[in-house]
Amino acid sequence: MADVQQGERPLSPHIQIYRPQMTSISSILTRITGNALILAALLIVWWLLAAATGPEYYATANAVVTSWFGDIVFTLSLWAIWYHYLAGLRHLLWDAGHGLEVPAAEKLGWVCIIGSVVLTVITLVII
Fold this sequence. Notes:
Elements (H helix, E strand, L loop, with lengths): L21 H32 L1 H11 L2 H28 L6 H25 L1
């Protein structure tokens, strides 16, 4: 076996040294928004099942969905839908071989974040 001296080898970049890049942040954000949309969908399913169950159960579910908590959840879900959509378009560009350079990938990450916020505000104004 090779003589491996673990004490003299550098460790992986530590969180205090490593600076997150836009590509890693946007990738993590895509995964977070996808999972958050599953939770929002479960809230909608609960609300629909409560409507089918009876008036008392529906009143409880409707109180949660129409409360400040429901407003926050559905507003963030709307943002997550727009972000996930724009990130999907970005991946289509990457699959076609466009925008793979680091500066272009960083710009596309910012386009996804800023674009999703702008589209969320536009959607909220229209609705």
